[in-house]
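Box S2. Input/output pair 1.
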Amino acid sequence: MRQRLSLDGVWQFAPDPDRTLEPAGLTGTDLRTIQVPGPWQAQCSDLRDYTGLAWYRRTFRWNEPAAPPGAEVVYLLHFGAVDYHATVWLNGARVGEHEGGYLPFELPVSSALRLDGDNELVVRVVDPGSDADADLGFPFAEVPHGKQSWYGPVGGIWQSVYLERRSADHLTSVRITPDVPGQQASVHVKLSRPAGRTLALDLVLSAPSGSEQRLGHRIEPGDTGVDLIVPVPEPELWDTEHPRLYAVEAVLSSEDGTPLDRRSERFGMRTIGASPDGYLLLNGRPVYLRGALDQDYYPHGIYTAFTDAELDEQFARAKHMGLNCLRTHIKIADPRYYDAADRAGLLIWTELPNWQDLTDAAKRRAWETLAGMVERDWNHPSIVIWTIVNENWGTDLAVNAEHRAWLVGIYSDLKRLDPHRLVVGNSPCFTNFHVVTDIEDFHNYYGMPDHHRQWKDWVQAFATRPTWSFAREYAGIERWREYLRDPWNTQVTPAAPEVRRRGNEPIVVSEFGNWGLPDIGKLQDAYGGEPWWFETGIEWGEGVMYPHAIERRYRAYHLDKIFPTLSDLTVASQRMQYAALKYQIEQMRRHPSIVGYIITEFTDVHWEVNGLLDICRNPKAYYDVIGQVNSADAIVPMDWERIAYWEGERCEVRLGLSHFSTRDLRDCRIEWYVDVAPEIRGVFDQLGPNRALLTTIGTVAFTVPTLPEAVRARLELRLYAADGQEVSRNHHELYFFPGRHAPTPFRIHVPQAPRLAARLGDLGYVLEEDPATADLVIVETLTDDWRTYAARGGRVLWLAERPESFQTHLGAWGVASREGRSWQGDWASSMSWLRQHRIFQGIPTGGMVDFAFADLTPDAVLVGLTPRDFASRVHAGLFVGWVHHVVALVAERWVDDGYLMACTFRFREHLGDHPVATTAMDDMIRYMAGRSRSR
């Protein structure tokens, strides 16, 4: 039987940038120590960016019990994964090599191994990372490397190593394929058997409930594979609520009954597929995919995973947040990761690591890696989806017809290799497309609340199965530019000839999300100081991804006047992230044709902080509530235009119920209440929602009560089954404002803006024809004349909503468009705030520009202000990413003897109707009109 010696632990290590070392001479080299498993970049601060050649060395003794007398045995050296190419010597003998950074390999070492003394093991590793490494034979652009091009290289022995003694006749794999309808499982056993004698194979199938079945089989000389059918009566299904696992133990024996080898595998009885009407089916039942992207990076190991217990804990947190799926992103995870997902009941959508250039060598490596993934991970019930290409990386599907044809070919090959799972050919985003796929998925990012209408419109368009998600034939640069100008146009476009669209592929939004800054103190505690990766990311997004010195920027821009501590700022950022995700998910749940989503992402990855957990797996501020949104049965607020209301207004919120659980919801009810005094409540009862559809429940309607001051309120929603048990809950944020302020006594002049003047007049403001007798001038465009007016002692409120509204010179000040710049905030999120001092104190958002400002957020920003200006002259601002590109949204300044305030919020067209716009405008008018004319 098998005996195993772990070779994990401390090894000796040497980088070899000059390529001068040899395996026989390592003992005389200045070797450092390193831990195996683990990439060298994770352990050696001077080698964070090192790629190329490196050497590992260790000695060991085989001290395991001796083999039985006369037994024919072999010794195999097993590596879980080495990135990227490994050559191995044992006691000076070259025993083999392996190419590929993600999959296991075994080398026979019987002839080189010393059983009665010290052994020296040497591994030469080539980790390509730049053009300078290309002469080592493995160009980085042509090898599967995944996100190493984003977060830095990963090289070395990053999974476990062991030496194992086996019988010469031994089992090499046991592959189990469940057949749920047939109540059976197919078992394919591969053997290594140099002796060629008759053998016996015994299988023991253990059910989750504890029952056992035994099956024997005679193996004739020359057979290297056995196919058996094992009955599985009344199968206990594996699913996300009950991850029931079967076990198969295979025992290989000699003809006289002497055990030779034993191997155990776990599997689940489950099916995955798609229905003709576009549902994802788990065990034949529609399932709503509630997932998150998981890049499978770790705080100290980078690629190397946590312990099993820590993997179990992180997946328990995923389930706590309502997730039933993780999309393991362009990385082949350690098998222990998939084992933990099997135990947790998480669906896994896993992906082939990408390359850069689709050469013939890249095609060969892609297929070898893909086939190796399928072979290694066949038995995992958690794995339900494979992806071949992500976002066109390593291909050019928009232009190159040969690349599209290649994708059709490799998709077909993969479906033949594994017909039991779903396959995505290319998981696309803007500027690239599907060619052939089992799931019609798409990636898109919009900043919230700034672009909430764009998100709503895009989701609605995607839900109609538009032609833009599949490739069209490239018809020249002008047609391409036409597409870029209006990519989400639902007009029918002919597909490229290579496209294989069925028209009923399940629709899934497979990437979307927003940033939520992590708690810096918790990261510093985990790393013993500033994390090393704080010095990375500067090359991305105009530098907004660079974490280093965030505390300095926080203080320099006087953000402590809004958020007393940096921790307060990060919590506010996380709450904005939650509000964004909640809105985006609810918009998707409105459309029954969309049957799933994947949030970007499960955990932060270094500088990319859109995770639901930080990189150390610390929960973010919304950890205990986001599961309410990620619910199989989701109460969905629908079709609201705003969340801020005046007292006395009629507030109406239409509700829907998206029902995907197995719960019986006949005669269920939804209770609702608004947490204001006096409390407002109601109920919708005797409901009968349709499973796997959106059922319209009704409209919550009430009159906003009279209030002494503006308040933030919540419409609380609770779903109860007929037996009274709570099934799910949700809430909808609301803001209630008291009646409009009494008109100010100040006289206002509004030149060349009749619509604005009429709105202000309707609100009771005193309009003055002559600017000379006005207390305040409000302009939509700041010209030289109005600058001169201010310089001579006037007071001007400038509604700088467009860059074109700036038609004068104010030194360094300027107005810039957010579109096309980092301020747009659609991927690395922007965050806007109010300094509620002197003005804006009656807007109860806690200083945040949240969904109360929907439709009011600026399209332009004020630039050219210094950090000193933010101490007292900036009343609202915006930053991007790790507190970069800080700009003002509302700011004031002296202009010689007069005073100017500029505001870029889009308040102008919403005065009177929108309480936030009206209140904010009134604050600015009162503040500016009453301001002293002297410095």
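Box S3. Input/output pair 2.
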Amino acid sequence: MQWIFWLIAIILSLGAGYLVYRADKRRAIPHPWITSLLRSLVVFFTLLLILVPTIIISKNAVEQPIVLFLQDNSYSISGALGKDSATYRKNAEGLLQRLSGKYKVVTWAFGSRVQNDSLFEYHQPATDISAVLARAQEFFGMQNLGAVILATDGRYNQGANPLYQQLSAHSALYTVALGDSAMQQDMRITRAYANKVVTVNSSFEVRADIVAERCMGYNNSVSISEGGATLSSVPMSVNSDKNDRGISFTIKATSAGLHHYIIKVPEASGEKNTVNNRKDIFVEVVDEKKNILIASGAPHPDVNAIKEALSGVESYKVTVCNTENFPASLGGYDVIILHGLPSLRADIAPRVLAAKKPVWLIVGAQPAGAQGANSLSAITHATMSPAQVHNVSAAYRSSFNAFTLPATIQSVTDKMPPLSVGVGNIQAGPGGNILFAQSTPGDAALPLWLLQQGTIPSAILFGEGLWRWRLYEFKNFNDHNVIDECIRQTVSFLAANSNEKPFSVTMPKYVWSDQEAVSMNAYLLNSNNEQVNAPDVQVTISDTTGRKQNFSFERSGSAYSLNIGVWASGTYTYAASTTYNDKHLSATGSFVVERMPLELMETGADYAMLYSLARKYNGGFVPASGIASLYDSIIRNDRVKPLIVTTTETVPLVDRKFYFFLILLIAVAEWLLRKYWLAQ
């Protein structure tokens, strides 16, 4: 519409110029067309300030395509290239130099993290291909990313399978295979499985997945041992170059405590890589089961989801009931989980309050859900107002510290569907620990999954839909580990105060890497079964040589915590002690720090994966020796081309001082000319 105002300004300025021309003609001014032109310009520029106060200026710029070079900088690449390392580096740098003449070249080194320097040093301890591809898409998503060159052996040991990663990038992906695709002779334990907690005098299963490559004719026994004594062994024979099988052991839990088991596969003749022939696992044997009650106001898939998550914990005895068969007495239960209860039809609040048991309250998506939940505020220390049922997405709180969750908790949470929530404003008591917050705009500070430590610990989930979370995690990650762990750890948090031991020390896990800091927690209970941390707690950590180091726990909330940093690989024992009410209390245990060279867990290059990845994203695949040929492939790719980017800028005339000086200059010029000619 601006052209209309421009047209009006032109017509009016021409009209003003014509009137001046006629008047100056009558006055016999020598050159009336000059004063007429100057007057037209003054009127035109002045009208623009009124009719068109801003001018839109369009600018075109040519954006050269970006070629992103991703170099795998992990330990395995040094071994994969071997004596060809210098030749490969020379060829890669030559390719980048040729490409930089036509394109904007960006280089990243990646492994467990992304670097902008140290491109060919091969020192990172792990490989995460999916993470670097996702970061490339995020970083260059709005730019002209023409091609990505991925130089790697295709062996990833962190993150997701890049083949199943859904990227929206429109750039071509070229893969450079580093290393030999031929299988190396290797016997390895890829994974070990066992329940974390079992009951005393029960038999439990320990399973291990074993892969044998180029070990045809291997005949030996896989063993599991504790304290140097072999508990069981299973014969294993390999009759092919590629063999994958599972081994199962049945162990009898004869004594309570934390037990350290070691699974070993004897090395094959001529096998060079033996670091992956061993797995350590820890199993806690308890002398009693915790009774867990799950009560629901109506049948709901969330109840079955919670039951399935707890079914793998042998130390739990789970009972499911509804309002019709709700127990008259709750004294025999250690934790009570209420789904959609209390309700208007089932006022069980007096019995729950009288039992003084830890409660996990899952607020149903019904209008009366908030009212029923408020009736238990004496335990939960939280109140809420009812609201229309609405969907709320979860946002993981990185500051959460009540217990340790899998490292993938953030990526799993991002994939979860919203929960159905029927509450509005939430008033949580002091000291609440938020696992998930509401990510709905305006409600970012409201909790969605809340844990409260007090005389009677409690937890609240302000919505329903856990069953969908389990389904979505399996859909995206092929397991339920993270969501099930959230459920198990919440119940474990609630059951902790029913522990008869007044002093205990726990660790988030008992097998650590030599690349991560080791941490532990301590809990002290008073006669009312309340957590206290008034006295000091010391711990002595000893290695297998007898060398000891002493530490003091730090107070954290009503408990204790300690971070002892990174330790060398080995087996360690700890002995913690404190004095409370003139009683000496102690707790002992052990943990293992493994030298986990993830890059040596699998050897050789995965050409098939790299070829499929290049094909998926319309690129090309070459071995390391053919990296120079990528120049011609990229040059011929029609998708790698410059883009013309048009930018518009709105220029307000009132902010341009020169514009006013221009009008003043033209007006003064007209006045001076008129004075001069009339004076003659």
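Caption for Box S3: The first strand starts at residue 54 and ends at 63. The chain has 15 helices and 36 strands.
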